[in-house]
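Hello,

Our lab assistant flagged a job as stuck in the queue for most of the afternoon. It eventually completed. Since we weren't sure the result was trustworthy after the delay, we are filing this so someone can double-check. Below is the sequence as submitted and the structure that was eventually returned. Let us know if re-running is recommended.
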Amino acid sequence: MNFYFSAADVLDRLDAKKGSIKGLISTVAEKDRKRTSALVIQTLKYKPVLLDVIDQAKLLKEERKKLSSLNLALVLVHDVLFSSGGIQAGDGPIKQAVLRHKTRLHSELQKLKIKRGVKSNEELAQSGDSRAASIPRYVRVNTTLWSVDEAIRHFGAKGFTLKDADSFEVSSKSHKDFAKDKHIPALLLFHPHVSFQDEEAYKIGKVILQDKASCFPAVVLNPPASKNAVVIDATAAPGNKTSHLSALMGNLGVLFAFERDRRRFSTLQKMLSKAKCKNVESVNVDFLTVDPTDPKYSRVSHILLDPSCSGSGIVNRLDYLVESEQEADSSVQELEERLNKLAGFQLMMIKHAMKFPSVQRIVYSTCSIHTIEDEHVVRAALESSEARTANFVLALPSEVLPEWKRRGLEGEMNEPGHAASLIRCLPGEDATNGFFVSCFVRGSSSSSKGLERKGKRKRGSGHVDADGEADEEESDGDGDGDGDGDEGGEGDGEDKDGDVEQRPRKKKGKKKGKKKKKLKKGE
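-- returned structure --
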């Protein structure tokens, strides 16, 4: 029965906006993770049906002494109605309380199927985001352990056929084709239905399931591969981007990986161990509490920031099942307030990173499509006293994955040309999740020429002040903002997403915010 309590707890925390499916499941004991993931996902798929059936059968009303939790009732009734094995637990008062209503529950389910005009249970399930169908299964080769060529030979020996990236199609009926990505050298593309959970290379960390867009930040940061390199990953869990940075550094130098949440820190450590990252020093503290003047960090030259975000760009995960309910009860004003709180926190992270004395390059990324979290945060960061003091500007487009065509939104930036230095990924069109990447460099470098700030400042709705005062507290929840993808999931739960972590943090002495305009479409 503990397994059901665990699944119900995940659903409770999802209801409380304390994380994403992937992030919360990653905290479940490894021996139960696969099973819990499957039950949570399937329960969410059938949640409207289960709620209707439970209500019509009067289960909670008649068994309120035994079933005090709605989510516990949901997972148990799911297995009564949709699992061939029924409730997988020993006899006890809670199990018996549900089984007493087994006949009535099945009867109400049958009535619902007749009412909806469907014949199978599967027709009752909520379907995923249709845009996910165009996204391949992305597999990043961990070049710390083997080469891309070795990986290609490995999969070729397993019956897969290497295709040219331009001819690879996710709509193909063949699940045995794969290709090398055109933009990320160590990334392979497979059919979205190919599972890697039983693949030995995945189990031992030689390949990592990670969405293409979430590989962009590490590539754009371009950390040095030398024994003297010192790099920071400010919000590291679950570790996909951290392991990517480590590989790009050739497993050399020092990579400080910060994660403040204890359970997520444990997940990070397991991931880094699995990927054999020898140059990472993981630190269980909040990056914002780290003293930039500490001699330990005096030589930090590159910082990766992928902080909490709304996760609005993620399409190939099932959190939308939760979000659709939550957003139905949220007004436009409430959504705007949430986004502005996130944007205030994101800006605070960038400004803190700019205080490190030797940092030359900072990458800020989100798995959001909202301009409030993307262009507006970058715009405010450029206007901040921290950027002015340290002379931070945007890197030239030629330094920010120039072969990627989709760039930032020009109308949301202060200066012509600034948007060209930003990367956007659009779900449904770019075969990735929605993503945003920016890169700040010190103006003393040659890359800064032509990108200095000038002219009048423009304002968009949801404006983030350069000082970040108006909104420097985070919204509810604690997903991971990772945007990564697949590590820690199972089946449909291996979402190429990114967890969205909204880590609550309030700034003391917070000033009264400016009056906000209504949120406009697309912001």
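-- support follow-up --
The delay was a queue issue, not a problem with the job. The result is valid. The radius of gyration is 24 Å. Residues 77 and 83 are 9 Å apart (CA to CA).
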